[in-house]
Amino acid sequence: MFRIDGIGDLILSGPALKALRSAYPKAHITLFVNEWSNGLTGLLTGPDEIVELKAPLFKAFKGAIRWREFLAEIRMLMEIGRLKSFDLAVDMRGDFLSIVTAWWLGAKWLAARSSRGGGFLLTHAIFQADEGKISEVDLNIDFISLLTCKIFTREKAKLKPIPDAVRLSMLQKMPPDVDIDYICLAVSAPYESRCYPVDKWVEVIKLIRKEYDKPILILGAHGDFKKCEYIAVRTGNKIYNMAGKLSLVESAACINGARLMIGNDGGLIHIASALDRPVIQLFGRENPICFGHYGEHEHVIHKDCPLNPCAESKGCLMPEHWCMDRISPDEVFECAKLHLSVG
């Protein structure tokens, strides 16, 4: 199975991976992921083997392609395919850039959605009329049902328990006054249009501080450090910038111990939901029907827009932060209050 796009996409494919394992209990399942998912794949149910790819072709949409990496990865995939002789390759994203990556494996059969191109490379093109109209988790499970001609129960994406070694490694990196009661924030996202403005994050934290004086940890990758630091230095004591200080799986361990997770739509918020933590998910231009979490302790804050979902148009006609700007810090705080008074 190939899932070489985002961290959140990988997590939302977890139930589909579990369904594939159920359909083929004796099969050897290799999961191909992007290298930025390092460590997280061990918390998924189903795969026998993990292969991490640099996926230079897939990353090309964010910048110039690195042809040396591209050619090296083609050779690697062809060699893996030659040694293992895969019967079936399944691409869960379904666009040309990911399908062609899976195609280099040389499997006997190649299956994927082809709604975004690449269908000419497939032996089995899966058509799903509900794409863009139901949750991504359900869409992925239905994909496996169509592929295997078996019916699977729709279920929430869940991660396995965090290993003790990861939890201990995370605790060693925590500030000294962080114990068993803290909040986590995810203030960054893969695209700026998904990001709640930093000054509004500052206001949210200040409002929370009126009722909650425990540590607040701002999580993120190395590239998020400056944004997280901007917020941390403007919001007082016990606000810690942890961006780049924890690995992805250590961040998952940190989230697993949090009282509440508040964040933009992105990988960390999907991790929190899959670990059954209380979640407040802030949505901008994307479609909350597909990627929102609506469980018992989960809250989606999203403002209606006549152009949403934006993915169905060629581009947004509104200013970039129009959707996020309409979410007030008071609204986020009122949602957070439901969890701040719990003992």
Would you kindly provide a written description of the structure presented here, covering whatever features stand out?
The protein is α/β, with parallel strands linked by helices. It has two domains: 2-148, Rossmann fold (3-Layer(aba) Sandwich), CATH 3.40.50.2000; 164-340, Glycogen Phosphorylase B (Rossmann fold, 3-Layer(aba) Sandwich), CATH 3.40.50.2000. It has 14 helices and twelve strands. The protein has helices spanning 7-12, 14-23, 56-59, 67-84, 96-103, 136-148, 164-172, 198-209, 225-233, 248-256, 267-274, 288-291, 322-325, 329-340; strands at 2-3, 30-34, 49-53, 88-91, 109-113, 124-126, 183-186, 216-219, 239-241, 260-264, 279-282, 298-301. It has a six-stranded parallel β-sheet, sandwiched between helices. A three-stranded parallel β-sheet has the order 1-2-3. The protein has a three-stranded parallel β-sheet with strand order 4-5-6, sandwiched between helices. Strand 8 (216-219), helix 9 (225-233) and strand 9 (239-241) form a beta-alpha-beta unit. Helix 8 crosses helix 9 (225-233) and helix 8 packs parallel to helix 14. The longest helix is centred in the first third of the chain and has 18 residues, at 67-84. It is globular.
Provide the descriptors you would attach to this structure in a database record.
343 residues; alpha/beta; Rossmann fold; 2 domains; three-stranded parallel sheet; 14 helices
